[in-house]
## 1
Amino acid sequence: MIIKNGNTFHLQGRNISYIFTVSDAGDLLHYHFGGKLGDKDYSASVGNEFRKLICFDGDNALDGIYSETAIREYPEYGHTDLRSPAYTVENKYGNTITRLKYKDFVIKENETASVAGMPSVYKGDKAAQTLEITLFDESIGLEAVLSYTVFDEQDVILRSTRFVNKSDSDMTLESAYSASVDFDKRDLDIVYFPGAWCREREFVRTPIPFGGKVEASNARGGSGHAMNPFIMLCGKDTNEKHGEVYGFSLIYSGNHSSVAECDQYGNIRVRQGINPFGFEYKLASGDVFYTPQSVLAYSSDGFGGLSREMHDIYRENLCLSKWAGKDRPILINNWEGTYFNFNEEKILSMAKKAKEAGVELFVLDDGWFGKRNSNKSSLGDWYVNKDKLPSGIEGLAKKINDEGLSFGLWFEPEMANPDSDLYREHPDWIISVPNLTPALGRNQYMLDLSRDDVCDFIVKSVSDILSCAPIVYVKWDYNRMMADMPCKGYNHRYTLGLYKVLDALIRKFPDVLFEGCAAGGGRFDAGMLAYSPQIWTSDNTDAIARLKIQYSTSICYPLSTISAHVTESPNHMVHRDTPLKTRADVALAGMFGYELDITKMTDDEIGSIKDITEFCKSVRTLVRTGDLYRLQSPYEGNYCSWQIVSKDKSEALVFGCRILNTTNTKESRLTLDGLSPEFEYTDTVTGETYGGDELMNRGIVPDYEEIDFATFVKVLKKQNNASEVNYEVFR
Ligand code: GLA
């Protein structure tokens, strides 16, 4: 609900309030973001604590409050506030001094804000309202429209900003954050998610130093392995279950920046948006610039509460594909099984075996096109390699269908190898700067998606393949970072080109399930999730490494977006040997598949795979739609566990892993979460029953096997509802 009471704007979600006021001087002063407050005009209470602070000359004060000391809504730099700004614009006089003042507002009923050219959270069947505040700087003719959406039954606020040049002369945006939020409290930690290839999204928590800042930014092209566009701010005592936490997630796949900074008075300012480094946007007279959307969330129930909030909104109101709301097929992907070394016969033999094990979809990965037998050639040549696949993609897809599986295909459409017909024909289509040999990454160049002809080529070449055969799934890969950007602001233009291409393709092929990928999880962000309901989480498929990767990915992103495959042991990345059960148990908490040479497996192993697949089918709706409760963090010790509970609390899957075996120790009890204390639950394997109150207060004692990397998975069903699935058989 949006309430305007006097000079107060108040956005009320289910349990939250976001409040700011307009001062008599026309400045937007932030008042509160957090637990829900009542409806009143808070403008008189704003800033009393700031009035006594010494700063600029009194004449510049906003109703006695110096802007530099206040907590503000969308601050500028350089007039009476010298802190880090939400935006910077160079005007025709060559300076960047600006002062946006409140002009008017509009409330849009039953609408979420949309952002031109970029994905955003949509309304779906939720009740939502959008507030637009127009600010204007008369001295230079700049308008900024701040957009805020609130949902009646969620604890999130969507924010974005739109700039309009209302003057007769050009101006240049040098930075334009989507949101800026000031907190007049000092004792906050920041949690952010840096990483690298094969160890994406590590959970890092650190205090925000007085007078200093923590910057979680990335300028490597895509949103990146190195830093995810999601941060949290939390109280010192906040943990998984308890305490205040604020989430900031950017719906964007390019260079991004999230900065938390503490000023001289101990106020903390958080800004999130496009990374200003290397950014610039020329605003000619009448031009409009949209920032991406930032999703702000709040919970007083710790990181777990915040995750469940984010999961609901991203699961239900972000992805444009119908697959977002559907169970995903259990797939087998040939990459780790064959790499580039396959032919039609090999693929069909894998598909046949996979079918025996109950698999539903075969995904043919890299190497099916041009002359591609290694990563040195053919990206850009999206026509089949008949030496490997004599019946073509059409013939192969039909044969796979005849085996009883559907068919999916890998593409990396944003790239071209120097050794490709595409590059030979269009050397000017790659990203480059004059007088410098373009940098190669994984032996490939990047195509210039800021050009319409390049975008059209991609849409056409992918469409031609998708139209020639019954292809139901596309893995959309992106395997290098962006270098040699030809001008400031290029990365944003590229990102808009990418969204245009993806938008065209998902509209043209609405039945196809797109999976995002970027050398593993190098572009795991809410922007890509708008087009692909699931994303390949990491090229590191080792079950033990995946505990951390999946755990921290799940803080922002729902399990329905996290692709997880069972691969060979020893693992190809970390060379660790882990039991099949462990690999399967970990992968079950995601969108499940296999990625190994199934033809090399023994009959016993195939039997196990069959059981796993059958079990996965029985829990996949629960995994996709349930509430996640993380119970033990792999960042904190030898254990990792989580639990997925159906919305009606009638069913739960509990997973646990003891990483290294211990001798002569007693397992501690593990208390569960999120169940109904009133229900009786039955363990579907042992038949034992427990009260929900017992499970949540007294807990269970995990019965780990005496091995390293031991795991268990338990399904608990509300009594009289137990299934017959016996998952323990393949232990
Ligand atoms: C990337 C992906 C892998 C695989 C290869 C193919 O590394 O993350 O899953 O598709 O590319 O080259």
Note: The longest helix spans residues 603-625.
## 2
Amino acid sequence: MAYDDDNIFAKILRGELPCQKVYEDDHSFAFLDIMPRADGHTLVIPKAKAQNMFDIAPGDLGHLIACVHKLAPIVRDAMGAEGILIQQFNEAAAGQMVFHIHFHIVPRWAGEQLRPPAQTMEDDDVLAAHGEKIRAQIASA
Ligand code: 5GP
């Protein structure tokens, strides 16, 4: 299967769909998951077109993981989390739903269960408040 230019994250990258953006640089883009598994659940995607780990160029993956490395402690501190779960799925059989490669940065608190994946849409004002916290943390980092 070839990369689909009309996948949801490609449309978000082109600004054709709204998102709660928290970060952007020359190679990467980060925004809040619309159905978060925990407050502050952030997705990090490359600007390069790749479906998953099986077709991304090593250099593009390097930029992407460097961005995850930069944002993980920022999201932790912004949300007051005790830990961070990082997830990345490859192919439908492994749980991949959107075929533009992405890493999940999911804040965790001891004893707090993750919400089920991709099930409940978060309120826009809640996402906006969490996005603001993360953007403020980036600005002060
Ligand atoms: P995966 O492909 O790794 O299973 O997960 C895709 C993720 O994208 C899910 O966590 C889902 O909640 C999220 N998602 C799906 N559609 C949208 C959307 O339109 N906007 C945003 N911000 N997230 C989305």
Note: Residues 37 and 115 are 4 Å apart (CA to CA).
